[in-house]
Amino acid sequence: MTNDSITLSDKTIGRLSLYRRVLERTPKNNKPIGHIFSHELAALAGFSAVLVRRDLMTIGFSGNPKKGYDAAELLDCIGKFLDAPGGTNVALIGVGNLGRALLAYFTYRRPMLSIVAAFDANPEFTNRVIQGCRCYSPDDMERVVQEKNIRMGIIAVPSVGAQDAADRLMRLGVTGFLNFAPVALRVPSSVYVNQIDMTMELEKVAFYARQTKE
Amino acid sequence: MTNDSITLSDKTIGRLSLYRRVLERTPKNNKPIGHIFSHELAALAGFSAVLVRRDLMTIGFSGNPKKGYDAAELLDCIGKFLDAPGGTNVALIGVGNLGRALLAYFTYRRPMLSIVAAFDANPEFTNRVIQGCRCYSPDDMERVVQEKNIRMGIIAVPSVGAQDAADRLMRLGVTGFLNFAPVALRVPSSVYVNQIDMTMELEKVAFYARQTKE
DNA sequence: GTACCTCTGTGAATACCATAACAGAGACAT
DNA sequence: ATGTCTCTGTTATGGTATTCACAGAGGTAC
Predict the structure, then answer these.
(1) Considering the entire predicted model, what is its pTM?
(2) Which nucleotide is nearest to A51 (CA to C1')?
(3) pLDDT band at B169 (very low <50, low <70, confident <90, very high)
(4) What is the bridge-based pairing of β-strands B150-155 and A35-36?
(5) Domains defined for chain B, CATH in brackets
(6) Shortest-distance nucleotide from B14 CA to C1'
(7) What digits encode the pLDDT tens for the residues A121-134?
(8) Would the Cβ of A54 be found within 7 angstroms of any atom in strand D?
(9) DSSP code of A8?
């Protein structure tokens, strides 16, 4: 039914993720949504209705003009695109304030996407369980990443340690990073990096907040 | 020199913020950078050299074909665009794990952009100073936001409380939000919302990490 | 001085993305 | 039965962002 060879744009896969979460969370009269119209989903996700229809079109999902889209089927279809069949195991590098917040945020939230190990050089954290996740010393990285079949990493260390962490993980087969360090990771083109720069995001808001004030 | 009536694109202002941080942080032989070429700045920031030149062109900043761009002048010029003259005061709503991480992250980091007050209903936090920032009860929001001339808000509460927080802040004149709650805030067009959806970002990485594996 | 080299600045081309516009299908009322 | 309404599915259009390609300027080597 769903064909993985379709090329989804970056923006589209982000929206699919959001559609899914909105569908999972929003109940109608305390029971799961049965069917939903494109404009309803659009309102919940904060996009336009045609964008929703177009996204669903690109993943080959069809709705019913009178009833809308079947929510359960849609969830299933999105899952076929976004989730790896056996789930994806993630390592967190850096258990500082940000790292702990991320642990709290993601633990048990996405069944197919789990942070299964955290690493930090600070002995205050190593060999402890924090927010439900075991924290290891960086010395154990080689062993743990292979044992737990970790495929992606979240980098939440200061800028200076970010490239090192990425390099070590890449040598162990990790092909995707969520990088919170404000530094451009040098990676081969086969590795995907999603860069999140909090300061940049905050300064963007400050800029626009000022514009509208004047 | 710099004309504020130029329209900067969303992407451009994000990159300007990053250029600035990269310039501030990167020393050359332990002293501040004097001049820098577009391709050097591009490598540090993770973009292409043309894009750097284009961005600097749109803010009307000129370089020297032989020496590159004067770093100090560039910092000054970027500051003229991004910073409000007297600085921008920010309120943080929600002092949970994420909120505390943000406090730690932003405190004393950007001189012209300070989180000057935090709000949380949990009495465990109210009337305490956390990461250098005083935490108030939401009951004090009206008074504090006006006293401290707060112009923007960071929303780090669960989805269910996000719209309420935004509404209260907007009534007090706040015109920009950085929203971490995975919910579409309903705001008038005069208010800017920068939506950060961590789960979406993580799932995007998982998707691409899987693609490259196959 | 002249040829050459490197970098900036920028118009043109391209790629990407979202919106607009509309065809098609089914339900419903009259 | 026929017209109308609403929603999906899809193509056409427009706008925006980035890259391409090259002109211009100044320094350097010889």
Answers:
(1) 0.92
(2) C18
(3) very high
(4) unpaired
(5) 10-81 (1.10.10.10), 88-200 (3.40.50.720)
(6) D17
(7) 999 999 999 999 99
(8) yes
(9) P
